[in-house]
Amino acid sequence: MRIEKWIRVQGFYRRLLPEEIRNRITPIMVNSTKILPKNRGRGECRVTFGPYNANKTFYVIRTGQPFFGLFALTSTVIDHIQYAKRRGWIPIVDGWNYYNAVIQDVENKFKSNAWEYYYEPVSRYRMADVWNSKKVVLSSLLCEPYCKLRMAGYSKLTEENIKYLHDIFEENIKIRKDIREEAERQCKKLIGGKRVLGVAYRAQFKLFEKENDILSYNHPKQAAEEQYYNEIDRLLEAGKYEYIFLSMDGREIFEKFKKRYGDKCIYLQRKLPHRNKKGREQSVEFDFDKSGLNRIDFETETRTYMIETLLLSRCTGLLASMSGNVKMALIWNNGKYDWKKIYFAGKMAN
What average pLDDT does the segment 333-344 reach? Predict the structure, then answer.
């Protein structure tokens, strides 16, 4: 209940103040709040762990948002890396000391760095180097507002912004080799040299909006499926694309598109949730224990989702509503789509 009340307060705060004002006053408010052990609050703080590396300043990016998805986390890390490098600090992502229930299985909690399930370390230094070092800056647990260009959140991305963020990503973050190789295999198998329209639809956002979910304040609206059908029908009839690549997070909407477009659809095989009669989000492909707890292998599912997003970035065109994976697809694609339409809160972003 305390978490729900806090999220509602955050929602009110976000609706009350424009983003540019929040970006300036939030760090001040957070730095005055010391709620973590050893008086290390949610804001940025400087600490000393030992006498070593006195000529270096390590910037520890704390992944302390327990329900961030992979791409929300990636966006935040990109912002923190920009901030650190402008100050000459060495960034290190700390996924050891913070548990993220969306991208890490509970049995691995505090046993390994969840960031490195999906990406290579962002520098040649490790957390082991930090614990003996003299100059260490612990990042804010929030998104970093003082980078050159914020990626966190759902801001509209211009072509110039996409190019800038693409270069930041390419310079500082490397996707794990095994994930890159599997994505390349799937790309050759599914896309090859075909003219493919990537189609991304977030059923979960529709659910948030319909049920007035407590988390919905921070998510853009999902455009209606009829808007998608009209665009896809027009593009296929004009012969602009041969196939559509489906990137969707709901079984029902996925099956609707498959039924409508038949063998024009290509997709990566992965588990998708569906709505049962009680209206709760489940999947018949997931196992449940006697208490009804979902036993999803989050690490495997997140890797598959990442590969799907990499494939989305390799499509010829893109039709989507703004979301975390769409944002990453745009940045990975680096302006190479020959056509795109991005719905943002029901309006066009491009």
Answer: 93
